[in-house]
Amino acid sequence: MRKVRCAIIGSGNISTDLLYKLKRSAVLDPVWMVGIDPESEGLKRAAGMGLKITSSGIASLVPHIQEDRIQIVFDATSAKAHVENWGLVQGEGVRMVDLTPAAIGKLYVPSINLSEINDSGERNFNMISCGGQATTPIVHAISQVHDIRYAEVVASMSSQSVGPGSRANLDEVLNTTSNALIKVSGAQSAKVLVVVNPAEPPMLMRNTVSCVIDSEIDEAAINDAITRRVEQVRQYVPGYRVANGPCFEENKIIVYLEVKGEGDFLPPYAGNLDIMTAAARRTGEIIAEGILQ
Predict the structure, then answer these.
(1) Do 62 and 88 form a contact (C-beta atoms < 8 A)?
(2) Which of 3, 132, 201, 217 has the smallest C-beta neighbourhood within 10 Å, fewest atoms?
(3) At what angle do helices 13-23 and 41-48 cross, to 10 degrees?
(4) Contacts of 29 (CB under 8 A, 6+ apart)
(5) Which residues are catalytic?
(6) What is the C-alpha end-to-end distance of the chain, expressed in Å?
């Protein structure tokens, strides 16, 4: 089967985990990895897998985009860097899957709006955040049964799986995730909290989703909607599950989620990073399938 050629910007933990996932794809062919540290583990592994690499940043990739027929670029750097990266590659006709919370492009969650991708004309696809990928599917599922007046998310993850880049982007993460709960999931208002837990051994990613509605809860319909949505997410994130719930308290619906990573490059407890790379791969595959058609 023909594959669509891809490049990865970034050579850190997320980029390296993404590389392993892309190498397993039936329609994506990663051919370049771009970094800024010549000693990075990601670049070394990419070179060992036969990719072309550069430690001179994205400007070194741009001249090769047409030459190497690159059609999709995955950006796993930072919100600030993404603005510059997109500015450098958008004139090359590529589609970019953005794993940062920059939110330049439309917000995408594979289990919610992937069907829109190839008909949208979009070229920049934002993956929101790890908390966004984990919780917007549940809020959206509930919104298909009841109008949601208020949605609140508490995303908890191990401190060992939250690197300096994620910490530096925390404001962008909170803003982009709360916007996704409104724009993608359909809540009228939303709030997002992030807890970085230093526990040893490291904890799995856990998320608490609370939705307030103004009508009598249809418990059967909510249970069915959440069960179906979880199965949809598990098609690309096998370690995604409801740990408890849904629980019903008067006009409030509460769901407790847990995400365990596949352990490609990152440890299984880093489900917060794994769900981002898994969502990015699935988004890239949908884009690639449209290109191949």
Answers:
(1) yes
(2) 201
(3) 20
(4) 3, 4, 5, 6, 22
(5) 130
(6) 12
List residues bridging with 75 in a β-sheet. Answer: 9, 98
Q: Do 210 and 193 touch, CB atoms closer than 8 A?
A: no
Under CATH, which architecture does the 4-128+274-292 domain have? 3-Layer(aba) Sandwich (3.40)
What is the spatial distance between Cα 277 and Cα 75, in angstroms, rounded to a whole number?
Answer: 11
Q: Beta partners for 28?
A: 4
**Is the overall model pTM greater than 0.90, yes or no?**
yes
The answer to whether residues 152 and 191 touch, using CB atoms and an 8 Å cutoff, is: yes
Beta bridge partners of 190: 151
Tokens of 250: 């008067």
> Six-digit token pair at 6?
């891809």
| Cβ partners under 8 Å of residue 132, min gap 6 | 107, 109, 176, 177, 180, 181
Backbone angles phi, psi at 201, to 5 degrees: -65, 160
Q: Can you give the three-state secondary structure of 173-238, one letter per residue? A: HHHHHHHHHHHCCCCCCEEEEEEEECCCCCCCEEEEEEEEECCCCCHHHHHHHHHHHHHHHHCCCC
Domain topology for 130-266: Dihydrodipicolinate Reductase; domain 2 (3.30.360)
170 phi/psi in degrees, rounded to 5 = -60, -45
| 275 three-state secondary structure | helix
What are the sequence ranges of the domains in the chain?
A: 4-128+274-292, 130-266
CA 39, CA 199: separation in Å to the nearest integer? 30
| Residues 91-144: tens digit of each pLDDT | 999 999 999 999 998 999 999 998 787 777 889 999 999 999 999 999 999 999
